[in-house]
Give the backbone structure.
Amino acid sequence: MPNNFYHRILQAIHILRYGELPKSKMAPIPELTSEEVGEARVFFPMKKFFIFGHARSGTTMLVRLVRLHPQVYCNYQAHFFTRAPLLQSLVSNAEVRAWLARSSNRWNRGKDLSPVVMRAAADFILEREARRFGKTIVGDKSPSNLMNGEAVRLMYSIYPDASLVYIVRDGRDAALSHRIQGFIDFPDQLSKQDRIIRDDFSRDPQPYLSGKRSLFSENGIRNSAESWVKNVYETETEARNLFKDRYFSLRYEDLLDNTWEEMQRLWWFLGAETEGSGLKETLINELQQNPDAEWQKTKAKELAVSIQKGKRGSWREMFTERDLQIFQEIAGETLINWRYT
């Protein structure tokens, strides 16, 4: 009785402070079992892949290229595992979890149905679109820099049989591109200091384009370097450990230099035929397009026209000495590991 009374007192204090009863901790969502994976593939037989990458690392360009293949379909940013609320939000409600795991629910075979529901939902979304285009291999691309290694682990818990493709771009160019994107697409989310830099760059871009003035605050360039290193290290480490031979990595710069060869490697990895009439020409033609650059010009022409979208090595002209020093201090080892000098 005393313990029960004490528990009620704690609940009353919690209600007074937060306006509701304390939420009980739910058990972690179980991983999909090998048996459940096999069952899912009976109903949804297409091969699946997911493209991850830090923001502004060429994931969108890679989607445009990979889906040119007559067998492969890919679309943009379902964010099943890479941005909240995530696929697991479908079963994150305590009452839903209890219903899916309830012993009187004879459909669940005595186990929590949550991973089965998640897999079925994602499979249907993916294959529904691919079938419209007559494709047999389907994937999603979602930038993973908000979740890093956790995105890989979440993906593996539901898609241990899928393939993970990871594209890496020189972190210095990725930081610059991400910065300009923030200026153009999210000006209302900028800090006061960042808005001052944005407005000054808009009025007189030349000092910024020549490395005399920085597009970043000191904290900004430091955060950019740390974010890139964390994404690259955690994704590579977790992907190699979990997916092994179902993990494929490539560099954005190699994709630009050897487009046909890199895409042949990727298509072969995904299980698609690597030869096709006119495919190479279609690939090269698509590479000449840059719809993202055109879109940004319609939103903020005064900013977009100053930067050549997708260019390699822009950091060499635009980074100040301070930018270079900070980025090298934080990301030097990772740059070397990925052959960026």
In short: The chain has one domain: 31-101+108-337. Strands lie at 47-52, 72-76, 137-141, 163-168, 247-251. The longest strand covers residues 47-52. The chain has a mean pLDDT of 91.
